[in-house]
Amino acid sequence: MAWIKVAQVDDIAIGEMMQIPLDEDDLALYRLEDGFYATSDICTHAAQSLSSGTLQEHVVACPKHGGKFDVRTGQAVAFPCVMPVQTYDVEIRDGAVWLDYEE
């Protein structure tokens, strides 16, 4: 894995999310009260962009069928989703958001 800079801390408000487009994958970056989290942006059930869905506290809902994932762990928490999404380690360095991601 390699650390890559994906955003500035001020780019995303608490309770918001954003898509991080990368060469091979799209990731979703979430800012919660307790920090930043990142997952794959693709729902494991319907191949939809999670960052186009809704975020309530630590749970993101897919816009297609409403399946939900815990963004802290990637675990599916509401049907029809049963497979987890991949998560990525996040660090804040000098006001920037960095992800541990293999390109």
TrEMBL record:
InterPro entries: Rieske_2Fe-2S, Rieske_2Fe-2S_sf. Keywords: 2Fe-2S, Iron, Iron-sulfur, Metal-binding. Residues 4-99 form the Rieske domain. PROSITE patterns: RIESKE. Its cofactor is [2Fe-2S] cluster. Belongs to the bacterial ring-hydroxylating dioxygenase ferredoxin component family. This is Non-heme iron oxygenase ferredoxin subunit. It comes from Alicyclobacillus fodiniaquatilis.
